[in-house]
Amino acid sequence: MEYVPRPLWLAGATNAAEQQGSGNLLRIILIVMVLGCVLTAWLLLRGYKSKDD
């Protein structure tokens, strides 16, 4: 493995990050995961609600 000076490595990493886009798929996956967790918690808590009848 050849030695790459740190400034050149950082410049290459910056260029690669710019070309990869905004990561919309990851954002969608995270939003769906959070909404799923909230829905699951709501359903579980709704099932444990005590009835005062």
Describe this structure in words.
The chain has 53 residues and is mainly alpha-helical. 72% of the residues lie in helices and 0% in strands. The longest helix is centred in the C-terminal third of the chain and has 24 residues, at 24-47. The mean pLDDT is 80.
Low-pLDDT residue spans: none
The dominant shape is rod-shaped
Q: How large is the share of residues in beta strands?
A: under 5%
SSE order, one letter for each helix or strand: HH
Mean pLDDT: 80
Structural class estimated from helices and strands: mainly alpha
Helix content: over 70%
Count of helices?
2
The N- to C-terminal Cα distance equals: 74 Å
The largest pleated sheet is described as:
none
Estimated radius of gyration: 23 Å
Q: Using DSSP, what is the number of strands?
A: 0
Short description:
This protein is mostly helical and 53 residues long. Helix content is 72%, strand content 0%.
Give the topology, please.
Layout: H1 6-19, H2 24-47
Describe the structure using short key phrases:
single chain, 53 residues, mainly alpha, 2 helices, rod-shaped
